């Protein structure tokens, strides 16, 4: 049976992404992003799902750094999940908002609901947990009038009631997850792909003014649409950067190989992190 | 007396940055990034210090989003702190590494020391905390053979011994902090500035191929050196982006106003988030 590893614990956004995308496979929670990626690399699991961008439980830096510096596993898919935070309670203990004396959650989730908490639960104490799933677990095990902030998966995992839906301050917040595997034939995603994407890592030959502009020329005159560009330190010291660039199409036979060849001729190092399909979870 | 707010609790990297940069002021810990920024905006504190990049206890997204969407406070300085993680113990309980049965820390700190933990503390249980400071507090209050991963400030704050120094996997990891204030005259930083920087937010008029290339032309032909570029969704929906660009010089009278005028003529929205000095903490 195909096995899927994800960043745990249960009831987190990564688990929600995995459940919405895959069916029937064996699913295993990992404690950290590196542990999950290592397990894919060593073949202990077939597929790994890790957060890439705008995540609650992890940071893009950690995932990107690990994929660049430690292991090279192809990205075979991307899952986009809207961030929806709900107020979760035990309905046998809390009947109305004003009953709530304490709110538990991950600090980023607390921050995402800053306006709501300020306006509606101004007197409640805030308690930080290591994940939104952990917060739901604490509430489910307590007979005190407390609440958790978390997603729908956390509510059903720990038998909590959603007292108030969508309490996050910004409606258009998304988390991107990468699907990693050395065996792309085992990746069977139940929803339909929304489009394709290619992610490139480009290291400049020197830290000179205008170098990035020159690099982007190779994409611009081919009318290749970029959906993301980000500079990151190379970790060999401050002042040296590489770029992560997402192009809105699959790696083709002509245009993207042409970009790669030109940039390499200019002295850049170019790595294709993956060419993959994008899946939206609604 | 000048008051400084920072992202708490005690013993975190933000506190370390504040202590290394400021002298004698009244210092106040805040629970979340938005709370700290709000307090500066309302004048409850004079200066706020919040993580911007590569942070353990916060994410760039949260800080940037809040500064763009909720409040507009000038950035008056940047503090760069190397991330150095140490193994912290109570020396009356733990004498050698092999005594340690459990390691407590924030999940990002655990992940940053992934290789070290794998090689040296393979059998120790991992326990996640809401911050590196919290982990140090737990270890200081326990009579069990446990350890925390955290920085020097956490060790001295909670009276712990540094059993092993620099256990992080990558030596060149830094955290950037922004100093925010409506009263720049109150910001007195004890170390000497390393250089100047200007941060701009640029929103494109439309999501077209090559638009970013056109924007960078305005910087490139003036030979303005960019130290960072990052695209971010505008939150008005997927597919719309703005760019955060750091230029390695102060906002001057000719070159940067020229860039701004040209980009605005092209239909871009340009906001100067700040022009400020950069301070390195060693």
TrEMBL record, chains A, B:
A single MF term (Gene Ontology): prephenate dehydratase activity
Enzyme Commission number(s): 4.2.1.51
Pathway, per record: Amino-acid biosynthesis; L-phenylalanine biosynthesis; phenylpyruvate from prephenate: step 1/1
Site (Essential for prephenate dehydratase activity): 175
InterPro entries according to UniProt: ACT-like_dom_sf, ACT_dom, Chor_mutase/pphenate_deHydtase, Preph_deHydtase, Preph_deHydtase_CS
Keywords for the protein's UniProt record, in alphabetical order: Amino-acid biosynthesis, Aromatic amino acid biosynthesis, Lyase, Phenylalanine biosynthesis
Gene Ontology BP, a term: L-phenylalanine biosynthetic process
NCBIfam families given in the database record: PRK11898.1
Alphabetical list of PANTHER family matching this protein: PREPHENATE DEHYDRATASE P PROTEIN, PREPHENATE DEHYDRATASE-RELATED
Protein name in the entry: Prephenate dehydratase
Provenance organism: Oceanobacillus oncorhynchi
Gene assigned in the entry: pheA_2
């Amino acid at each position: 049976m195909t096995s899927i590893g994800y960043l745990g614990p249960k009831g987190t956004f990564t688990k929600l992404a995995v459940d919405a995308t895959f069916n029937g496979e064996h699913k295993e929670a990992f404690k950290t992003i590196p542990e999950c990626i290592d397990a894919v690399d060593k073949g202990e699991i077939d597929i790994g799902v890790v957060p890439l961008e705008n995540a609650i439980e992890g940071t893009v830096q950690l995932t990107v750094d690990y994929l660049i510096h430690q292991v090279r596993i192809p990205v075979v898919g991307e899952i986009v999940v809207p961030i929806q935070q709900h107020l979760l309670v035990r309905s046998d203990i809390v009947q109305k908002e004003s009953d709530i004396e304490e709110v538990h959650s991950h600090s980023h989730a607390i921050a995402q609901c800053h306006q709501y908490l300020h306006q509606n639960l101004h007197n409640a104490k805030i308690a930080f947990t290591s994940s939104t799933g952990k917060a739901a677990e604490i509430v489910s095990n307590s007979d005190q009038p407390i609440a958790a902030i978390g997603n729908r998966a956390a509510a059903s995992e720990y038998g909590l009631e959603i007292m108030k839906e969508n309490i996050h301050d910004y409606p258009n917040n998304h988390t991107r997850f990468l699907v990693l595997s050395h065996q792309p034939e085992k990746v069977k995603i139940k929803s339909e792909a929304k489009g394709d994407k290619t992610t490139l890592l480009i290291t400049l030959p020197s830290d000179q003014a205008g170098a990035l502009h020159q690099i982007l020329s190779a994409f611009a005159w081919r009318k290749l649409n970029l959906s993301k560009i980000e500079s990151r330190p190379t970790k060999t010291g401050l002042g040296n950067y590489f770029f992560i660039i997402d192009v809105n199409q699959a790696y083709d036979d002509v245009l993207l190989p042409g970009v790669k060849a030109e940039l390499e001729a200019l002295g850049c190092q170019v790595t294709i992190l993956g060419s993959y399909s994008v899946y939206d979870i609604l």
